[in-house]
Amino acid sequence: MATLTLAACAQESAITTSKTGIELVPYLTKNNTYTYVDKDLNPVINETFSYATPFTKTGFAIVGNLDQASAIIDSKGKTISPYTHSNIYMNEVSGYTLLISETSFDKKLPFWKWDWNIMSSDIKKTVPYKHLEVRVLETGQLLFDKKLADQDDDYNFIIHPIDDNHFVWNGDLYKIANKKFKIVKHHIEEVLDKGRYIPVSKNKFEIWESKTKQPILSNLTGKTAIAVTLNNKEVLLDSINQDRFAPVVPKILYDAKTCNTYIYPQYDKAFPKQIQINTKEHESFLKETSLIYSVNNSPYFILGKFNYDHDVWRYDWLYLDDEGNVHDQIPVMDFFITDQVGYNLWPDASMLIPLENIEKDWQLNKIKYVQESDDLFIILLKHETEKIEKKGLWNRNTQQWDIEPNNTDISILDMKRHLYAVQKEKAGDYIIYNNQTKQQVGQKAYASIYANGMVRKKNDAQKDQYFYIDLETGKEYKEQKDMNDFKNIHPTILQRGIVLAKKKAEDHYSDKFTYALPNWAMLTGNPEMIAAVQIYGNEGIQVTLQRVDFKVDFNNEASIQRYVNHLNKQMKTTLPLLGYVLFYKNVLIMQKDPNYGLALSAFEASEITRYNSDNTTPNISFITLTKDLEMVESTVELRKDA
Q1: Torsion angle of alpha carbons 274, 275, 277, 282, nearest 10°?
Q2: Which of 17, 46, 296, 571 has its CA 20 to 30 A from that of 228?
């Protein structure tokens, strides 16, 4: 099957400011349809849809109807592109919106190409095809219109910006002028920084700038070796930058006219022809070098020599500047070399994290740098004897764990706002963690959390439900339980329950000696009501005391909802109301005890952070209230004497 690849860019937040200045968010209703609201949950677009995406910065969103068709609307709800059963996507470039449409169909084959199956009577007379069409939504300009075999994966729609008016897309260089998109060059293979690019070529390569009419370097040929002079001795550094599959653009380009050699990834400066070495170790290292990278925006080159003596796959490193001087270290913090799956080769573990920060019986396995940060790295640790792995977030600058390595998974949600999705246990839910405040955002956890604010969570019927949240606050953009969900219980009763549930938790953990709490800390919570039972008459009390013929799991919200529905159905509402049983979920939170008069030390603050980051799983409990909203131990105490 062919794959249509979209832009590999950061996802936008679900809260998008439209061209009208209103912040629009997809909002999930109780009927499992979507509408759009502002950040204060005020309706903006009243029409409902079977699904809805966040608006692009250019002011458009994709919505669906009950017929499983999709359309494009603007921020006023006006249909810009009509409903279609084709797969549609949008991409933004330089303030414009590209609408990509993919329609599948079966193309009839001529009879001499029919696929005859000798094992059966089936004859394949068609082949899967797709019709790809790309238009500029604002102007209607058609950029791409082709019918391709479904197996044809030579086309993709990854956009590589060059500058404000140029971009490379599907191998073509486009220029935007006077609201028109124009192809100015075909067959672009490599996009470099500073507006440069390399077109495809069989033998000779050129490096161009988007605003020039002639190449800045031409007649370049690919090499796998570099001829240099080491202390006046001619030496050939061979088998450099070898890949299992040769790239279209070689990682070493040679200019025969100037005898200059340019190195991947940016080919930004010439490799020194003469190298000054002071030790035999440096000479031996250079001759065994198999990896060379040019560090852009600096005079340095990184040289790697594979080290077979290590337990884990790794390189040793040496450095050159563009004048041929050898260095054991370089002052570079914003350059990274990764393998094909994105894990760090350089800087490696020995440069980042001292071994004393690795727990006993654990060893460093893999490292991945955090984009948009020079100091943060997601570290994967592997147990030495058991098949267990865990992740943490390491800060190179502070030489500390920002997120302790006791998590199954850590992923980046929003670097500008220091937000991460953290999964404690394998197959468990994810929470949002704010690395700046060192606290969990909200109290809820989700099966999946995406960078654009979309989350996945099981509903009461144990089916996947998708909706959006504000990553910074945890606010959910979905219709919440109202009085009907709580059988017409007044919100005042629920709020009283929250206050008493919080007090119950604080009272329970008030004995600091028993729970080994320091005098500067206390445990509290932020309870959330999830279900309620209203007790009617003494018969209702008996209903709450009877056994049920199904399992009630206090770790499962859906199970509690089932139990509550079972109890409420048996209540005789004609009898006097005696009280309430309120079920809630709560995550224990450590905070400074308000009775502690001193400021917290750095260690004490870090201990609070550590506790709250480790303790994210909500517990479900309940409280029983009289009709006068006083808390009692059990429903038996609600009994009304005849």
Answers
A1: -140
A2: 296
pLDDT in tens, 149-196: 887 767 777 899 999 899 999 899 999 999 999 999 999 999 999 999
Question: H or E stretch including 351?
Answer: helix 349-352
Average pLDDT on 188-214 reads 91
Tokens of 148: 């391709």
**Domain spans of the chain, in order of start:** 16-155, 223-331, 349-451, 491-638
The continuous run of DSSP H or E covering 632 comes out as: strand 631-632
Cα gap 405→390, rounded to integer Å: 6
Helix axis angle for 557-570 and 537-545, nearest 10°, is: 140
Tens digit of pLDDT for each residue in 470-522?
A: 999 998 999 865 544 565 778 888 889 999 999 999 999 999 888 889 999 99
Q: Which of 443, 475, 486 has the alpha carbon at shortest distance from 583? A: 486
Alpha-carbon distance 281 to 269, whole Å? 26
Q: In Å, what is the CA distance from 594 to each residue of 502, 519, 591, 601?
A: 16, 11, 9, 15
Q: Is the pLDDT of residue 261 over 90?
A: yes
Q: Residues of 475-503 as b/e, b for ≥16 C-beta within 10 angstroms?
A: bbbbbeeeeebbbebeeebbebbbebbbe
- Identify the residue with better confidence: 59 or 41: 59
| Distance set, CA 5 to CA 169, 305, 336, 412, 453 (Å) | 11, 35, 25, 21, 21
Q: Return all residues near 111 (Cβ < 8 A) that are at least 6 apart.
A: 125
Distance (Å, whole) CA 238 – CA 428: 49
Cα separation of 272 and 365, whole Å? 35
Q: Judge whether 639 and 576 are in contact, CB under 8 Å.
A: no
Residue 367 tokens, joined: 């490292």
| Per-residue tokens: 255 | 């200019």
pTM of the predicted structure, to 2 decimals? 0.73
**Burial group, residue 17, by CB count within 10 angstroms (0-12, 13-18, 19+):** middle
Residues in the chain, total = 642
Strand, coil or helix: what is 501?
A: helix
Cβ contact 394:374 at 8 Å: no
User: Residue 68 class from Cβ within 10 Å (0-12 exposed, 13-18 middle, 19+ buried)?
Assistant: exposed
**The Cα angle at residue 70 between residues 453 and 32, in degrees rounded to 5:** 55
